[in-house]
Amino acid sequence: MLLDNIKKGFFISASVYVNDAHGGVQRCTREYLAAIKAAGWNLEILPYSIDRQWQTRLLRKLKPSSFYNRIPQSFISDLVNRVISENISWVFLNQVDSLPIVPHLKQAIPNVKIVLLSHGAQFVDEFLAAQSIDSLSIQARSRLANTILDEMSLRQSLDHVFTLSEEETVFEQWLGAKSVSWLPRAVSPKPLDWRPILGRVGFVGTLEHTPNYEGLVNVLNILQKRNDFDGCIRIVSGSESLGNSLTKRFSFVEYLGRLSNEALHNEALSWCWFIHPLFCWSRGCSTKLADALEWQIPVLTTEAGCRGYTWKDGNVVKVNTVKDFCSYLVNFNSIDKIEDIRSNVILASSTSPSIDDVADKINHALWNNIKNKADK
């Protein structure tokens, strides 16, 4: 492997993750891309679409899998040919969806370096979903077991795995990844002209994501039982059906729908709190928290809610029970109190890692190790 080509690579991703959407997966994807490029890699993005041929659709129905019969075989064949013909040294796989490519690449080009850019192990979501079911069917049990076994098998030939949080490095090691490190979220402060309206609380997130929905509903249920909460929870989400149902269940909830960036900024500058009530260790990280940190508005979350984030000074408010979470919303009922909390958020925002800081971690994990081996 020639050193002058060692930082040339392909970035493989499902096409839906590399579009201009403002979802969490898209934000993490852009962050990975920016950090790898800042670390000196010359990347070409190669997107793929899910295989829609009737044969593969039938296979997915007959034998459900989170990994197999999804990436077109023609894409994999073209990728292998290009890696060989263009002497590509590195292949970065965005999300675990791309893992089925690994065996094909390693069989054809054993020396190519393959790095998984994890957004969270797939089995975590399936495991959490299973917890809410009283009695799992044989098929559901088999699906969960097969997911874990597939994840273990597909990690055997990886050269490195990056995760979005320190907690997830343990999952990766448990699944058999031989080299793992985590990359903290990069924050670029973009302060809003904060003009809070007392009692106004904001939530941003996908309600179809069970941990998001259950955490929020648990908080709303407690607030409804109390007689001392006179605020308003304003929900920004594209989950129209669930959002509207919450407004019917809770008189103090307003569903705002999906907002443009400009409209969201204008809305968020009036919030006393940005809340992220996540009470379980779900997959990946909570990307919307980065928005609140960049906006430098008061944040109320949990330890699980801010996994993957780090800062040198300041902090956000973290409470780990629903009861304490609701008490904060009730007791911190003056702008002066909330302003003190905001000052800590500003410090956390200002001392969070930048893209260049994350790039240094990538170089330490990949380039320095490979270069040292080459020098020997």
Description:
The mean pLDDT is 89. The chain contains 14 helices and twelve strands. Helix 11 (288-295) links the parallel strand 10 (273-275) and strand 11 (299-301). It has 376 residues and is of the alpha/beta class. Strands 2-1-3-4-5-6 form a six-stranded parallel β-sheet. A six-stranded parallel β-sheet has the order 9-8-7-10-11-12, sandwiched between helices. It folds into two domains: 3-186 and 354-375, 3-Layer(aba) Sandwich (Rossmann fold); 200-350, Glycogen Phosphorylase B (Rossmann fold). The two termini are 14 Å apart. The protein is globular, with a radius of gyration of 22 Å. Helix 1 crosses helix 14 (355-375), helix 3 (73-85) runs parallel beside helix 4 and helix 5 runs antiparallel to helix 6. The longest helix is centred in the C-terminal third of the chain and has 21 residues, at 355-375. It has helices spanning 24-38, 54-62, 73-85, 101-108, 122-131, 138-154, 166-174, 210-225, 240-249, 261-268, 288-295, 322-331, 335-350, 355-375; strands spanning 8-14, 42-48, 90-94, 113-117, 160-163, 180-182, 200-204, 232-236, 253-257, 273-275, 299-301, 317-318.
